[in-house]
Write a structure and sequence with these properties.
It contains 6 helices and 12 strands. It is α/β, with parallel strands linked by helices and 227 residues long. It is globular and about 45 Å long.
Length: 227
């Protein structure tokens, strides 16, 4: 397990504290609709950090071709209908480009600056000319007003319990997922980014914001500098 990352509960736990069985149970949200509205029909999407394929499967059903990347073989075993590649995102170099590169699940907020830089460079490296990079950011209050909870459509109560500063602007986030028959917890590190800090991080990787796709600024469409 990586420093600052931990997970508990039934089944396999990945090095970043994610429980494979938990994510197999959780339902996909409005992500596929947001993505489908932002890119051309039938695009080839490189999905970075696909997990078990919650979003992957919905995109395949909508007619997209998806290449799913994750560092966990156990996560990728659950993916259906897509090409799968096992690799850390920050080290990925496939030697090919895609209509769309997607970095969801708030991965851009990695507590490790070098990992975040590597992920954004991977996005820039794999997007085709005229293509788009789609990034999911944390909401403005993600680290505030805690604890809070919501009920997932799968019947799971999701609780963000705390976000504790651990230095250098990084928070250690503690989450709990409660089903009637099982409980999982996850601890991970996240760096809050203001819109300005986020856009600076994009620029460092040779990307710029094309437009914010949602009113809350959570979903962003970016393009290479100069396009």
């Amino acid at each position: 397990m990586r420093e600052g990352y931990e997970g508990t509960g039934p089944g396999a736990i990945t090095p970043d504290g994610c429980a494979v069985e938990l994510y197999s149970r959780l339902r996909v949200g409005d992500e596929p609709d947001i993505i489908a509205a932002a890119v051309r029909a039938g695009a080839h999407i490189l999905e970075l950090g696909s997990g078990v394929g919650r979003v992957t499967h919905a995109l395949v059903e909508r007619g997209f071709t998806v290449t799913a990347v994750d560092e966990s073989a156990q996560m990728l075993e659950r993916v259906r209908g897509a090409r799968t590649i096992r690799s850390p995102i920050e080290h990925l170099d496939l030697g090919e480009t895609f209509d769309v590169v997607m970095l969801a699940s708030f991965l851009v907020h990695s507590g490790d600056d070098e990992v975040r830089r590597g992920m954004l460079r991977a996005c820039a490296r794999h997007v085709a000319p005229g293509g788009h990079v789609l990034i999911q950011r944390e909401g403005e209050d993600y680290h505030a007003n805690l604890p809070r909870e919501r009920v997932d459509p799968a019947g799971c109560t999701v609780r963000i319990l705390s976000a504790d500063p651990v230095g250098d602007g990084v928070h250690e986030v503690h989450a709990e997922y409660v089903f009637p028959d099982a409980v999982w917890t996850q601890t991970f590190r996240s760096r809050p980014l203001t819109p300005e800090q986020f856009e600076d991080a994009l620029a460092e990787a040779g990307l710029r914001v094309d437009r914010y796709l949602t009113e809350d600024g959570v979903w962003v469409r970016a393009v290479p500098m100069g396009e």
